Amino acid sequence: MLKTHMRTHMGENPYACDTCGYRCSRLSGLQAHARTHTGEKPYACDVCEYRCSRPAHLQRHARTHTGEKPYACDVCEYSSSQLGNLQTHARTHTGEKPYACDICGSAYTTSSDLKKHFLTHTGQKPYACDACEYRTCSRCSLRSHMRTHTGEKPYACDVCEYRCSQPASLKRHARTHTREKPYACDICGSACTTSSDLKRHARTHTGQKPYTCDICSFRFVSSSALSKHKRTQSHRRKAVYNQS
Fold this sequence. Notes:
By secondary structure, this protein is an alpha+beta fold. Among the domains are: 2-66, Classic Zinc Finger (Double Stranded RNA Binding Domain, 2-Layer Sandwich); 71-122, Double Stranded RNA Binding Domain, CATH 3.30.160; 211-238. Helices cover 46% and strands 13% of the residues. It has a two-stranded antiparallel sheet. Strands 3-4 form a two-stranded antiparallel ribbon. The model has no long low-confidence stretch (mean pLDDT 87). Residues 15-42, 43-70, 71-98, 99-126, 127-154, 155-182, 183-210, 211-238 form the C2H2-type domain. It is found in: Nucleus. Pfam families: zf-C2H2. This is Zinc finger protein 239-like. Keywords: Metal-binding, Nucleus, Repeat, Transcription, Transcription regulation, Zinc, Zinc-finger.
């Protein structure tokens, strides 16, 4: 046993796979690796039909039945059934983002987030809606989109009866109770509840008017201002005149 353990320090890997170039320090490790080629799964769950090639995998799986979460965060109350999940969670406290995009440099806390981001560069959208032509690069985005068809609103406000389909919508709604205005203008310091409100406010400084009336060519800072204009008598008269 000591001799086997010493290989972890010496970097010695005497056991080699006959199929690929894999090498390891333990015979048991080589035997477990061989199952990636044979597909053998000798370890079976007593509760369900799950089978796997390694005892460690079976041990992790068993926690889905027992609810055991032995890996606990030192900073908050988060706990997990898997060590990898805890390591990923820890980055929410440290701010560490070890996965960086080679194209634009954007950094992420998980490799899966980086893979999803990379699809924004390739234009690939592998997740398709069964009900319409919507496609997306993210499984999470597809789940959110499906709620536009099902009408599901799983996110509920703790203060009032408001419900919504997106967590971001609930977060925005909560500010109607807290009066929080986290988005501040760099020019005048005015604070807004949402990023879209801040964008509209910024146009009062830039003079940008991106919304144009298709009848009289008047331009407006916001879509709401354009809608208000279309309800005016002068707009309606011009619309009727153009149709005659």
